[in-house]
Target: FAD-binding domain-containing protein
Amino acid sequence: MLQPPPTQARILIVGAGPTGLATAVSLIKHRIAVHDIVVVDSALSGQNSSRAVVIHAATLEALESIGCRTKLDATGIHMQGIRIQDGNGSPFLVNDFTSLHPCTKFPYACMISQAHTEIELNKELEALGGHVFRPLKAIGMKPVGNGLQVSFETGQTITAQYVIAADGARSVIRSVAGIGFLDPEGLEKDKSVDPRTSQMILADVSFDSSLDHVFPVDHYTGNFSICPDGLFLLAPLAHPKVQSTLYGASEPIYRIGFSVPLRKGEAPSQPGLEVLQEYVDGQGPPIISSDPSRNPTNKPVHLKKVYWSTRFRTHSAIADTFFKRIHGDTEQENGGIVMLVGDAAHIHSPMGGQGMNLGLRDAVGLGAVVAKHIQSLTGPDANTNSNLELLQGFAKERHGRASRQIAMTKRFAWFVGSLMNPWSIQYWVLYVMGKIPFFKKKLVWQLSGLGNR
Model:
């Protein structure tokens, strides 16, 4: 029998993806009692469908601050750089992360599935005495006295002073709190990203041949292929231990990702091997093609097995505010506090692997500031009105960082879109810029998140 959740909590975290779990761990590490925190999620463990695959330097620093970096960093692959190439396999830009050495202990990107990140964060939460109550899907929320009562599909309710919405882009908590969620430029959903890259497919797969010639063991590099039909990502997923944990696999597993232009219609929600092979051959680097006439090695490479796949649509949006006080019906009732984190607060194109990273940094900081606010409530007359500037200031600052992140991913999307047209002036301008050391260092700096911690 599943353990029932308590009906009262000081802090209720709705959503147990990476940001919800990291917020809970951060709260505990900042001396909030574990029995004051309740974490719920609408899905059973392991049923998430959105899987990021990279943890950047700034996020590794944030995770280290709450003791959650070491195991993830040890089981992930340290990606030393990026390579962007055209559809024929010719390099357009080759970059590495060595320029980050003076700025961080982590001059690389850690490649590891979001699913494994969640596993490790959940282990840390449980080691601290915490627990995720599943499956509990939030359907409503209302002010009750000096708190907020969240109701669930099961008929259960939980009342808390602080409700942290980590329940994704379609956040129920954000919606019932009356917080808007729009593109920061006011663009409509279908116009907030390039239609050529707004529909994406991700998959974890194995191949029937070794890809050691693509990924030298001593210098892993992420591969991006860009052609007029779209873009294609190829990267090793993680070390064998992770592959075994996630999929029971003993063979190397790779993450592939590619765009499906809207003009081609809606892609299948869980594409199989045949569909994936078509795009590997059409948009992937020639060196992994199953077509011998296209593969320069004359040794066709075929997909062997699909372990997981998904289709999703991307757009950019940000919540009007990451903080809201919801008052009761009388002046004597202070009401409760809603804070947003992760995709509930901001979403954007996956270009550069920035979404989960900013969400995790938000979560670590949110745990610290909520803990500081609670610890400031001392004395017989204290109430949650005290020092609200702590929460409001944090929310405003993170809102600004999210806005800048969205703008950055839009620039990345423009960059990719320009490379899809080799006959354009922008293509050749970017080609020249890709040879300039300053431009290359700036790109790595922006990807690392160090300038937008």
